[in-house]
C-alpha cells in the first residue's frame, strides 16, 4: 500500500508544497520472506536426493575399481539411484508447473470439455493404484454432464493429485468416494477418504508449498509436498475454490467448486 500526503504552505514571500510518500513495506517484506523460504526449501529438497545419488554412485564406483562387488548389492544401490533421480524429476516437473501458474490465467489453456468425463477417466486410471493398495475407489456422477471451460490438462493434474493423495494416505481396506454435480452456476467435485486424516493444527497450512504433516511418510510415498499447492493455484486460476475438511484418524474430504462461466450465464435471467 502506498500513501501520498500533500501539505501546502504559503508565506508572504512564496508558496510551496511538500509531498510525503509512505509505502507500506510489510506486504513487500512478507513476499520477500516467503520467496526466500521457497528458494531455501527448493534447494533442500533437491540436495537431499542429490546427496544420496552421489553417495551411492561413489560407493559403486569404489567397489567397481576394487573389483569387489556383490550383484544383489549392486542392483539395490542402482535402484536407490534410480528412485532418487525419479524423485528429482517429479520435483523439477512440479516446480515448472508452479512457475507457469505464477503467470496466473495467462499460463492456462481454454477449452470446452465435460468435467464429469474427465473425473471418470482419472478415476479409471487410478483404479490400479487403489487396487494394489487394497482400497475401493468409486465415482458417482450426480449430473450426467458437467460442461466446463478451462485447461483440461491442468484440471486432470488436480484430480490426479487429490485422488492419489487419498490413495497414499488411506490404509488398506479403506474407501475412497468421488462425486461430482452441479450447484447453481458452479460444478463441484468431492473426493472423500476414510484414511489417516489431518490434525487440526496442520489444516491451515496444508496448501503451502512443501508443507507435509508427516515428512517421512510423504517421502516414502514419493510425494513432493507440492501437490496441494499446485492444485490450489490451478483451481484459483480458474476462479474456483478448494477446501479440505478432515478429522485426524477418521478421514479427509476435499471439495472443489468451479464456476461454469459462459455456458451457465446464458441461462441466467
Ligand atoms: P505430498 O507430495 O507430500 O503428498 P501434497 O501437497 O499433495 O504433498 O500434500 C501435503 C500433505 O497433506 C501431505 O504430505 C499429507 O501430510 C497431507 N495430505 C494430503 N492429502 C491427504 C489425505 N487425503 N489424507 C491425509 N493427509 C493428506
From TrEMBL:
Subcellular location per UniProt equals: Membrane
Domain named Histidine kinase: residues: 41-262
- Protein's name according to its UniProt entry: histidine kinase
Amino acid at each position: 500500500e502506498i500513501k501520498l500526503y500533500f501539505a501546502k504552505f504559503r508565506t508572504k514571500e512564496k508558496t510551496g508544497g511538500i509531498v510525503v510518500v509512505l509505502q507500506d513495506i510489510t506486504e513487500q517484506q512478507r513476499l520477500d520472506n516467503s520467496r526466500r523460504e521457497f528458494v531455501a526449501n527448493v534447494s533442500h529438497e533437491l540436495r537431499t536426493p542429490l546427496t544420496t545419488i552421489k553417495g551411492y554412485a561413489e560407493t559403486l564406483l569404489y567397489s567397481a575399481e576394487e573389483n569387489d562387488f556383490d550383484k544383489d548389492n549392486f542392483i539395490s544401490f542402482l535402484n536407490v539411484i534410480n528412485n532418487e533421480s525419479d524423485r528429482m524429476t517429479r520435483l523439477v516437473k512440479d516446480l515448472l508447473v508452479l512457475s507457469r501458474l505464477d503467470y496466473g490465467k495467462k499460463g492456462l489453456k481454454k477449452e470446452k470439455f465435460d468435467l464429469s468425463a474427465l473425473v471418470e477417466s482419472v478415476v479409471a486410471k487410478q483404479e490400479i493404484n487403489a487396487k494394489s493398495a487394497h482400497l475401493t475407489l468409486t465415482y458417482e456422477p450426480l449430473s450426467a454432464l458437467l460442461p466446463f471451460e478451462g485447461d483440461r490438462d491442468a484440471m486432470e493434474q488436480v484430480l490426479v493429485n487429490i485422488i492419489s493423495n487419498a490413495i497414499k494416505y488411506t490404509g488398506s481396506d479403506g474407501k475412497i468416494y468421488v462425486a461430482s454435480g452441479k450447484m447453481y452456476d458452479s460444478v463441484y467435485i468431492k473426493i472423500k477418504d476414510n484414511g489417516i486424516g489431518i490434525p487440526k493444527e496442520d489444516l491451515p497450512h496444508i496448501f503451502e508449498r512443501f508443507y507435509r504433516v508427516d515428512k517421512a511418510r510423504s517421502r516414502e510415498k514419493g510425494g513432493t509436498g507440492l501437490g496441494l499447492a499446485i492444485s490450489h493455484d490451478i483451481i484459483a486460476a480458474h476462479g474456483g475454490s478448494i477446501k479440505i475438511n478432515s478429522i485426524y484418524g477418521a478421514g479427509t474430504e476435499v471439495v472443489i467448486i468451479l464456476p461454469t462461466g459462459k455456458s451457465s450465464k446464458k441461462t441466467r435471467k
